[in-house]
Amino acid sequence: MTVWDQRSELEFTKDWNGIDHVTLKAPRGASARVSLHGGQVVSWRNERGEELLFTSSKAIFKPPKAMRGGIPICFPQFGNCGSLEQNGFARNKMWSIDNDPPPLHPNDSHGKVAVDLLLKPLEDDLKCWPHGFEFRLRVSLAMDGDLKMISRIRNIDAKPFSFSFAYHTYLSVSDISEVRIEGLETLDYLDNLCQRERFTEQGDAITFESEVDRVYLGSPNVIAVFDHEKKQTFVIRKEGLPDVVVWNPWEKRSKTMVDFGDEEYKQMLCVDGAVIEKPVTLKPGEEWTGRLELSAVPSTYCTDHLDHIGSM
Asked: N or C: which end of the chain has fewer CB within 10 A?
């Protein structure tokens, strides 16, 4: 079934599992598709119809497992620690359309087509993470095709709680060996391949020759991912997200994942805006906001320095 909302340029559909999807369409042809399972962006295409996010050919699309690809929402934890499932439960829950979201700054709405989603804990959720919260997610698409995500998490409990968070962004690249990241130079990072030992980045840019699984700390709000073969650059702008996760499983790790092709590591790179080293703590009634904006532009628009690109 497909329902059109002409006023807001949204298309409502269901996938083969009966899960609701919302597609946002910009006038020039760019689009983004969001699944209510996990509040997950599962597709982002430019005005030429080219897919900008990676999804594994072996991805499992049936709940309760999160799909391998797109942009899963990791909350209230990132990684595998404590009693919660890996990367938290938000990416495995059914979200609802938020028909009456609290107002956002005008800049977050002007000239964009958007959908607002809402996640509240169910009784079973409270058994594994006993905290009352409201998680509001706005996904918007600008007229130029830029994708923006705004997460607002409010404590509606009677006691404080803490959480970590990540937009686990799977970027589609031509060849991982031809990709470099700029903007994380000289930063400290936690290396998950070395028991989270702390190191300092020594390279002028991050390039890839083997498995990488790092959390860069205290990062700038603008970083760039250069794809030399495509002559395309992903510009990542963020607010409220001090850390950046960089992950590529490479060959050996890829063969251990049932929902990931053995050779697919060559066409993907995860670069996540995140809060990991110092979790957010909210007192009753407090709210946290984390913003992420993704642009895909020709590499000729970018120089070796990111200062001119600007923040959100």
From this structure: N
Amino acid making up residue 70: G
Annotated binding-site residue? 91: yes
In 27-128, at which residue ranges do the beta strands (DSSP E only) sit? Answer: 31-35, 40-45, 73-74, 96-97, 112-119
Alpha helix locations (H) across the chain? Answer: 123-128, 250-254
pLDDT tier at 268, thresholds 50, 70, 90:
very high
pTM summary value: 0.93
Q: Would you identify the CATH topology of the domain 2-301? A: Beta-galactosidase; Chain A, domain 5 (2.70.98)
Residues written for the chain: 312
pLDDT of 289 reads 97
226 in helix, strand or coil?
strand
Residue 308 phi, psi (nearest 5): -80, -15
Residue 15: exposed, middle, or buried by beta-carbon count in 10 A (0-12, 13-18, 19+)? Answer: middle
Domain boundaries, the chain: 2-301
Taking the C-alpha atoms of residue 212 and residue 179, their distance in angstroms, rounded to an integer, is 13
Cβ neighbours of residue 293 under 8 Å, at least 6 residues apart? 146, 147, 148, 149, 236, 237, 238, 312
